[in-house]
Amino acid sequence: MPRTLFDFSKMFVGCIHTEDFTNAIKKEELKILLANSYIIMQDCSRKSWEEFEETTANCHEAKSEYIKYRIGKLIG
User: Fold this and answer.
1) Which residues fall within 8 angstroms of residue 65, CB to CB, at 6 or more apart?
2) Quick check: 12 and 75 in contact, CB under 8 A?
């Protein structure tokens, strides 16, 4: 049975700019970003969360309520 791991229906596509941060990317970096995202999504869809977390660098579940709140604010 197919699993839905990523839902882009409510994706925030605007750029965030503050005094010391931006999430804007340059056009030449876009292909690399999209290719890497696709590879990660393929890998994630083949594994359980635990397997994915173990084999992926810097990947962890957001457990802190403050971090969850901040992520929620960033993505709307």
Assistant:
1) none
2) yes
